[in-house]
Amino acid sequence: MKLSKGEKTFGVFNTILLSLLALSTLYPFIYMAALALNEGLDSVKGGIYLWPREFTWINIQTVVTNPLVQDAFLITLARTIMGTLGTVFITGICAYALSFRTLPFRKSLMVYFLIPMLFSGGLIPYYIQLRELGLIDSFWVYIIPGLLNIWNLIVMRSFFENIPESLIEAAEIDGANPLTIFWKIVIPMSMPMLAAISLFTAVAHWNSWFDGAYYVNEMNLKPMQTYLQNILMNADAAQNLRQGSATASASSNAAVAAASRTITPMALKMAVVILGTLPILIIYPLLQRFFVKGVMVGGVKE
């Protein structure tokens, strides 16, 4: 089909605009990566925009070998995996039960679930509740409170309601119980939707810092994003990270010890940001096709 002059002009303008928008979102990450891979003292001079001027791995190595960063990374990884699996399972079970129109008190239960989603008791009552449950200064404070997500429950319930009832009835005639139907029929048909929900939940767990900052005091239980927020907001934390690295490298070899003297708090901050962001940036494109399909599926009804 031949395009008109106006359509061609719009296409060129649209391409330029979207390219600039993509560059504006990508450039901060490129800039931070350049600072993280550049010698710290050389970065202080300025003039680094796209790539490092004095390339070095010492900043990344310093962060990776720090025990607190290692603990924070493992805590974040564990909470992301366990939290995602637990949330998808618990929320999915509840959504599947609520998808049955014959469920007693179905509408009352939905109202009961919607109230806490729309109205919150506040931070202090929530903290008191977590304290009474024994979740303060515990790893499970990252997992248990988020096992049931009301918004995801509504999305899952709407998806389950669109599954043809003939499949459920055929399975029941063959003698399948509700749990078997859920595992053998509902779950396989819901994989795109479950992948999209899992992606949202995993990103939320990976980027969460609030619960680690306010509900956990032990440094070895704080997640990566909370530790990163502490470094970015507290200059002393970055300085302590630098001093700890210098002390550790002094006992290794002279070359590493000499390189560690060029480390600056700003270079360490950029290195921590890159390491905290990179894993989710790698995983997200791999699940993008499931995300798009999961959002679109069920949007067209026959």
Key attributes of the depicted protein:
302 residues; mainly alpha; 16 helices; 0% strand; globular; disordered C terminus
Brief summary:
With 302 residues, the chain is mostly helical. Helix content is 72%, strand content 0%.
Structure characterization notes:
This protein is an all-alpha fold and 302 residues long. The protein is built from 16 helices and no strands. The chain has helices at 5-36, 40-43, 58-64, 67-98, 106-118, 123-132, 150-161, 165-173, 178-189, 191-207, 210-214, 224-233, 235-250, 254-260, 265-286, 288-296. Helix 4 crosses helix 12. The two termini are 31 Å apart.
Note the beta-strand portion.
under 5%
Biggest sheet descriptor: none
Spatial separation of the terminal alpha carbons:
31 Å
Oligomer: single chain
Q: How is the topology of this model organized?
A:
Elements: H1 5-36, H2 40-43, H3 58-64, H4 67-98, H5 106-118, H6 123-132, H7 150-161, H8 165-173, H9 178-189, H10 191-207, H11 210-214, H12 224-233, H13 235-250, H14 254-260, H15 265-286, H16 288-296
Helix pairs in contact: 1-15, 3-15, 4-7, 4-10, 4-12, 10-16, 12-13, 12-15, 13-14, 13-15
